[in-house]
Write the structure tokens for this entry.
Amino acid sequence: MNWNKYFIYNDNFALTCANETKIAMHSHPFFELGYIKEGTILHTLNNETTTLTEGQYFFVDNFNQHSYQATTDSVLVFNFLFKASIIDNSLSFCRDIKTLLRHYMIKIDSTKLKANPSTAVYSDDDGKIWELLHKMLHEYERQNFGYAEVIRSLFIELLVYTMRKISSTKSDSQENLVDYTIEKILLDCANPPTLSELGKKFNYSIPYVSIKFKQATGENYRDYISKTRLNEAKRLLINTDSKVHEIAKSVGYTDINSFYIAFKKETGLSPNRFKKNFKNKKTQLS
């Protein structure tokens, strides 16, 4: 196969190969996985420059600035460009890998990772990642029944294998606190444990629990719960026929007006408009 000329496009992803020796600084409203197939490059991401060589790869979040310059005479970079909706349509507003990893179909806790998954450099030492990318490509070429589901499954497998490379083996009380809390929130976002309950369980003060949670996740406890509830609401709006007030109640909102305000602040749309837009898009694509 002539990788130098390869280009595939789908509504949720694109597979391309580039042999340009220099790509200017740019950003885009989708994710990118860049895999160095041949040569060596200097890759700059958000003002940090790293050397990448054959078999190494990286992720770029939505709207992050990046560029590269080849340091060898020739280079071949395989790009997997994707929207978060490749995993689930409820992720249409997802803009970073950490949020993507928390989705219920993947369930990877970013607090267990020893590096930021969006800025880490990964090495495909055993060729597993390239094998998965190659399978995804062939599934798209053949387009047999269920090919989109197979591609999604392969990509989730790729993400899990990749996160293993930067997973932490530490297990102290602080990590147990955060792991336990996130697991409880994801399991039942309508009834998450209170800071007081967490403090009693782990023998910490409420301020300590709050500080440690924010240090580990980068978000306040209340904001994390709110984001989780809204993500679940988006999933239910898209994938079920439940009424808006039923969904609001199921994710933990006792006041429907508060739900509408929070949902519109997060998405720019009312829940009904969000659902209608998705149905219209689905009809247009069918």
